[in-house]
Amino acid sequence: MNIKWNAKGYTKDFQFVHQYGEDVLNLLDIEKGIKVLDLGCGNGALTKKISDMGADVIGMDASGEMLEIARKNYPELTFIQDDAVNFILNEQVDAIFSNAVFHWIDNQDGLLESVYNGLKINGSLVCEFGGYGCTETIHSFLQKAFEARGLEYKRTFYFPTIDEYTPILRKHGLQTVYAALFDRKTALIGEDGMKNWIEMFVIQPFKGLDDSLKNEIIDEAVKSLKPILYQNGVWYADYVRIRLKARKI
Domain Methyltransferase type, which positions (predicted)? Predict the structure, then answer.
């Protein structure tokens, strides 16, 4: 993961992340007692949903702060701290589920190798993450604000097309059985929804900048974005998602 989360703020103001993830659960072939890994489980909300569906589920995340919340909220479940690009499970699982994680991972080869090794033969990877064009309106305005000040806007996320990603899956022994790329305009919470979104999800570009310059750039971007992404009193982020299912062959 190339981002460190504000775990409490994420849980409080960005519940839509796991709420939208509930729809992805429909791609899981849940039978009572199957073993599932929730990879990048965050605060554990979807791990709990998977458990309620009848699976024997483990939540895994790199963030100790996120896992602290997960363990507090769902003490009956098992959560472990590990890195998505080099984890090793004690026992292979029937399915690996992941929501809103893969686009934050630089080493996709390491990630998918770990996924392959963690799955039983014919086991499923079910995931959703940012796809090509995701939040491009926001990032374009931020990039312009950076460049106007002679600064580099570092894009530390990975938003592929289906045609780009499925060959990577295949290279790692994962056969795609379903894939979709779709727009999903997403409502943000409150009058400061866009400002809060930028502060939560756009971290790396602002590293090393003093707070006054950071706030100046964010305020400028928010002002520029308002005619486009603020509608009827609600801020929206222009999300694009890839949703897919693949099997270990």
Answer: 37-127
